[in-house]
Amino acid sequence: MKSKSIILTILATLASVTLSAQKLTTGYLYPAGGQVGTTVEIEAGGLNINKAVKVSFNHPGIEGELLPFVEPEQTKKKRKRLNDQSSPQLADKIIVRVRIAADVPCGMYELRLQGKQGVSNMLPFEVSSYPNVVEDQKLKSSLRKPNMVDALPAVLCGQVTPGGIDYFRFSGKEGECIVAAVKGRQLVPYIADAVPGWFQPVIKIVDSRGKEIGYSDDYLHNVDPVIITTLPKDGEYTIMIHDAIYRGRSDFNYRIQLGTIPFVHGRYPAYGVVGKKVKQRLDGVNLGTEHATVKVKKEGYNALTFTNSTGTSNAISFYALPKGTKLIQYPKEGAMLTQSAVIVDSLTSKARIKTYKIDVEQRKQVIVELIGRRNGSRIDAVMRLRDQFGKVVAEVDDTEDPIQGLMTFHADPVLKFMPRRGGVMTLEVEDLHRGYGESYHYLLRRHEQLPSFNAFVSPANITIPAGGTALLRVDISGKFKRPANLIIEGLPKGFTTSSLQIRGSKRWDVSITAPKSAVVKRQPIELKMEYQNRDEREQTDVLPVDNMMQAFYYTHHIPAAELALDVVEPSPYRMSLGFDVEQDVCFTAQDDVIPIKVFIDKDPGFNEEIELLLGKKNGNYSLEPVIVLPEEREKTIYIKVNKVALEKFRNKKTLPSWQSYIVGTVKGEIVKQGRRTFQNAKYREITPLFNIKLQR
Description:
Elements: E1 7-10, E2 25-30, E3 33-35, E4 39-47, E5 52-57, E6 62-67, H1 73-81, E7 92-100, E8 107-115, E9 118-119, E10 123-128, E11 132-134, E12 147-148, E13 154-159, E14 166-172, E15 177-183, E16 201-206, E17 212-216, E18 226-230, E19 235-243, E20 253-259, E21 263-268, E22 271-273, E23 278-285, E24 291-294, E25 300-304, E26 316-321, E27 326-329, E28 335-336, E29 341-346, E30 353-360, E31 366-371, E32 381-386, E33 392-396, E34 414-417, E35 423-431, E36 441-446, E37 453-458, E38 461-465, E39 469-478, E40 484-489, E41 496-498, E42 501-502, E43 507-513, E44 525-533, E45 539-550, E46 554-559, E47 564-568, E48 573-577, E49 585-588, E50 593-602, E51 610-614, E52 621-622, E53 626-628, E54 634-641, E55 657-660, E56 662-673, E57 676-686, E58 690-695
Parallel strand pairs: 3-10, 11-13, 12-14, 22-26, 27-29, 28-30, 37-45, 38-47, 49-58
Antiparallel strand pairs: 1-44, 2-4, 4-7, 5-8, 6-7, 8-9, 8-10, 13-20, 14-19, 15-18, 15-20, 16-17, 16-19, 21-23, 23-24, 25-26, 29-36, 30-35, 31-34, 31-36, 32-33, 32-35, 37-39, 39-43, 40-42, 40-44, 41-43, 44-45, 45-46, 48-50, 50-54, 51-53, 51-56, 52-54, 55-58, 56-57
């Protein structure tokens, strides 16, 4: 089954850079957005970002300029004294001056930094209708001495410190419907070294006497809270924000949209067909209307906002089906769910359950998918299938969707059942917590079959110096047939690949090598990457993602708009292998060493020593560091075989093979960050991937 094509885009930069050992990683942006039609300076924190040379956005109307970050000496001394839960991953800071054109639609965009280390991970940057009000970090704000907000609406921007509470004071009038909508987790979806693995904001609004008039620690099933309250009288009010368990750090930053601004709870119906107009009823506050019409061009999940004279609302999800899909909206009880039509419905009956009929065939699998929570619904759905006698023959609650990398609670079910006999069965849908109402909406559709797996490629950004090699990692979630091929279409002439045949592992590396003559171009080069079984019966696109870690352990695939590959100026040396990388390097358990010949193409005048090591290590073989002297242009290295470790394969019917590559490093400066000291690399280049195979 072939899914919608995913375009992998190669971005080019004119900067003359080389690949560094340390990856460029962005940890936070502050403030993480700006008002449409303005210029804003933001602070970016991360690792190795102080050597960035360029900033890019996924919208042509947003441009960025890099400026140096100069930390005041007093702030530096104060920071060193505090036990502020700081992280080496946030040690570097730069300033980015962002210009936002007046015609850029409000919403979330992707910001990436480019430098000698390549291209960074993505972080969200918000374009808003409202001006930023940035907290005064010199002021230790309190209820008595808050940050002052001169006018509303505004976006309040700040960073929570350990044990800290931030305060902002604003003026309001009796009867105003005030909205305070926080973005915290949305700005940094996962934090690797924090539990829980994200900033969990709590907000409260009090009047001039300290009386609480609004409180929130989340909004529906979202971590980021929202307060909607009517002001009881004219006067001054204070909004305060802190972490739920009083953690804090630079990446615990937030944006609070505050004012009598439009806020949408829901848009109904929340499903449609690409290219067809859908008349919707709006549920929310400060809207000025209850109706809207929408027509979307993109299949799948769309983020819709509502705009009036005050500004632009929060985004609500809208799911669009492919053109030509037959859609049945809100059918009567007991409607037939067929293969030829999709049903959109909601639990509006006080019975809090909805039933449908399904005509099944003997020994032919029934597959029913429900989309609800993934599209912003409140429903935590349960599906039950009953036979002709009313007996429950199948029941399902939660089914994980690997594509939804930002979700940590997967509430939508997929029902699969193999009937022993044919006939008409009954499908029931209800909310696990017995909730009901228009906001408990969902989509039901039958499938002949579903893809047995999902394939992801990361990182979403790769740098290849002309003549150099870069690695891609493919992760496969689910069941797949081995062996299989990865297909990369659209590579320019002279580019080569290795290790495109997946032999067994669900985590597989691929290398792409650029010719030395590769031209650095301004315009992007579009590629397409697919997974295909050897019998060509199953083919699907490989989705580009950024991998993010949550709470020291969990790793999530965060969908990226594209796979960005920078083709940059060549490194002063390039590495290749003295054999065809498509052929296995074979050895036996009786061998002492595995000889590998490495060629090093050096630029004139390059006289540095290069240290060679294995790029992918395991316990079956090893390589001590090998030095390539300035006058050497080739080197035969000898990988030592671990005969004891290989004993476990003696009686195996199928002998294993392992991917590997050689890393050549020129050592650079010694860097100290906090208590940690490490040696960065001046240059680091790799050979194409090759396969080492054990034979009898």
